[in-house]
Task: structure prediction
Amino acid sequence: MAVSASDIEHIHDLFFELEPLSTRKMMGGLCVYSDGQIFALIGPGDKLFIKAKDEFAKKLLAAGSTPFTYENKSGKQVGMPYWTLPDSALDDPSEACDWGRQSLIENK
Result:
């Protein structure tokens, strides 16, 4: 998986209300920051994930999101505090920004 310039452009278009927005390529993915605070990433399978924990994670689960997990070297599934952006928000900047704002507030 390689993050392309068009992937980065899409992230800026999707989260334009959360400027100043910056990105950083890491481990084949992309970290997304608003004013220096990470709130999203592109991870395995080119999926867009939003940082969430506790009650906010429950909201994402209710919206159909799935957690970011990976298999470690010993074969154990490990969870990360990131959830897929709901499908309805993937092409809706207004909804995506609403989820992004919630992430930024919940993860300060």
